[in-house]
From TrEMBL:
Chief localization: cytoplasm
GO biological process, one term: acetyl-CoA metabolic process
Listed Gene3D superfamilies: Glutaconate Coenzyme A-transferase (3.40.1080.10)
Catalytic activity: citrate + acetyl-CoA = (3S)-citryl-CoA + acetate; citrate = oxaloacetate + acetate
GO cellular component: ATP-independent citrate lyase complex; cytoplasm
Catalytic activity, EC: 2.8.3.10, 4.1.3.6
Keywords: Cytoplasm, Lyase, Transferase
GO molecular function, one term: citrate CoA-transferase activity
Subcellular location: Cytoplasm
The protein, known as: Citrate lyase alpha chain
SUPFAM superfamilies in the cross-refs: NagB/RpiA/CoA transferase-like
Amino acid sequence: MIKNSLGKMIPDGYKPFISVDHFKTESYNPLDKILSKEKCKRIESISLLFDELKIKDGMTFSFHHHYRNGDLLLNMVLKEIKIRNLKNITLAPSSIFPIHEPLVDLIKNQNVTSIFTNYVNGPVADAISHGYLKDLLIMDTHGGRARAIESGDIKIDVAFIAASAADLDGNANGIDGNNPCGPLGYIYPDLYYAKHKVIVTDTILDKLSKNEINHTYVDYLIKVDQIGLSSGIESGTTSMTKDPVQLKIAKDTVKLMNELDVIKNNMSFQTGAGTTSIAVAAYLKDEMIKHNIKGSFASGGITSSLVDMYNHKLFDKLYDVQSFDLTAVNSYKNNINHILMDASQYANPFYKDAIVNKLDCVVLGATEIDLNYNVNVTTTSTHQLIGGSGGHSDTAYGSKLTIITTNLVKSRIPSIRNTIQVISTPGNSVDVIVTERGISVNPNRNDLLDKLKNTQLKILTIDELYQKAIEIAGLPELFKHKERVIGLVRYRDGSILDSIYEV
């Protein structure tokens, strides 16, 4: 084991994290994109595709997560792997959700022995945390996954691409058909660089409303009974929280943005789909309307809250890598300025004009934060896998202002801690933490502190926030995990931020 610059121990043979800017010193040499050699071929079933491609032990399959907890395709492929009792398969889905519970048996049986993903939650996360995956889980960021595929760090034998509709030539999208899921932004690296690309859909049309996926990259087309459940893309809630703590955090976040001169014409903004994020968007909407502010764009996984702001003409454009609800899906289908961005355009550190680098402000969450502003969104305080960075550290790095919102204490557990279980986002990318009992500004941002000299907001040091948390909940015991490393948190540049241990 070796120690990286954050003091975290990582296994030998991996590149240790040095700094958030270290990638600027490195060259980037993406592989050539792989075009289809022949006309797209119609295959009648996944089983026949396995025969056609002579699928064997040790191969790598990739998937996207635009259906989120309504995805059915990964489970279809897992079923075929199980029937054939293939071994040592590597999976590279952009995310894993509770609906993918059938994967647990294949992990335990060593049909699947290695996984690359950006987010994992539910029964699969539990199985991996308890040490059932034979080899390592590699947790990338959304931009880091694109980099890894383009550079050949992740080599994909077959990309299985769920699409809500396709034509017989192999063009496809996520908006036509009976089960739309929105823009298919995360699958583009797989589409361009996998050895074999397979569109799987439940709807074949003569003509599509949009050709998101170009047939020149597609090798095979399969029609199934149902590709996914549109209802499964809903993330959390789309309604305004009534929790007074979260409402206070959201109000203070918007007040803070105002005092830091972020809320102004041509501003760009991103936030997530959690309850606090939805409240932030609602209060930001009111503030922008009050002062007649018009922003340039909002981006990310797009929610109905951001669509509402767009419909009120508060933003010129929406840049969408995935939709978080059906309102966003319909907006993308019908509005010319609701624009698909692929994973590299969104967040690849080596993509020159990545959208994350154009953000004025991003509002993100956290499960834990340490005294150096490092953030954990990968595990609980007892080291149980519950998520992953996704776009967290990508947007935190790129945005001019990165705000982390969190309850100071959750279920009698302090969110601000001396030591956190896993570092998902380095503290150098975090500017401000907003809790219901005070706001802490990273001392590296003296410019922000200067702007807040006369504020009525309660500004505290991180140590003062920590002490408040301890006064409320007491000093937490540091959870003792086992010694075996079962996963790695990989920063967007390919270096290793932290190790994940068996529990």
